[in-house]
Amino acid sequence: MNRLFIFICLSLSLVACHPKNASNAANSASNNIKKDSAEGDLVITGFYKKQIELNHSKLTGTTGDFTSFKKYLKTLDTNLLAAPYVLDYIKTCLHLTDTLLRDSVFLYYHVEFNNVIRKLSDSVITQYDYTIKAIDTGLKSPDALAFTDNLNQCGIEYVENEVDGDYIQIKPEYLYDNFKNYVTKDICKYLQFTDIETKEGYSVDGGLSITFDQLYQRIKRWEKFANTYPHSLYRKTAIANYNMYMNTLICGMDNSPVYDYDSSYALLPEIKTLYQKIMKDDTASRTTKIITVYYDSIAAHNFNRNDSVITQLTRKYKLDDLVNAPSLK
Description:
Layout: H1 3-13, H2 22-32, H3 47-59, H4 66-73, H5 82-93, H6 99-127, H7 129-136, H8 142-153, E1 156-159, E2 167-170, H9 174-179, H10 185-200, E3 203-204, E4 207-208, H11 212-228, H12 235-251, E5 259-260, E6 266-267, H13 269-281, H14 286-299, H15 307-316
Antiparallel strand pairs: 1-2, 3-4, 5-6
Helix pairs in contact: 2-4, 3-5, 3-8, 4-6, 11-12, 13-14
């Protein structure tokens, strides 16, 4: 049976479950977290750590279920502290053995955590603009250190980005470290790969921040994931990653070209060598098939860039499709 269907049905069927003190714990969580972050909380040394420890003492002895967890989760809409609060609730109050139920808990948590980051990123950057400027200039003032530490307590980090603007994001290792022994193997692998790739980076200033060979390793990784876990709820994301990386391997980026745009638009020697390596690496893979077709096509054009060849290839294999997740077979 399709896991997504099971996941949806499971979420609906568990509405009737109410352990004795689970609802009270969820209500207590809502009361513990202020609706709006108080001015200056993030620059008070040890403030978030102390709040998390205080909240943990209130969770001790509480037993929850899926319904109370979702109610507790709703507090994520209001404050950064809710992220570690709910993680603590999962570890302290939920004693689940069913793997599908555990996956459901993680998926709900992941979605809501992303939502809170998206909602609060701009306000955090605006509110703590003075402190962030100090961080950007390398100053390690008490305020700057407290700001970074308090965010870390929530599994969040500040990112300085001159192109897209500063923002906050979930720390790369946070989800993997906390859920690797909790979720099923496919989700664990997804978190592991995402952790690695977020730490490595992908692009900066219109160019790759990794090598083309590293890019190829990512392509292999996501192709294998999609084929190994055909029913994974993260398969679509895996294929979207695969398509994005394959597109870059074939087309390059503005500041990481695969063709020599200063002369004859010829394929760069290092890229030609990489393509030849790929063609011999795993002859049964979809990646090898695509690169072989592409290589032979541009060879017929003296290895000069040919836009019609690229367009036909990307359309045939749907490499520009980051939404519909076609099969990788």
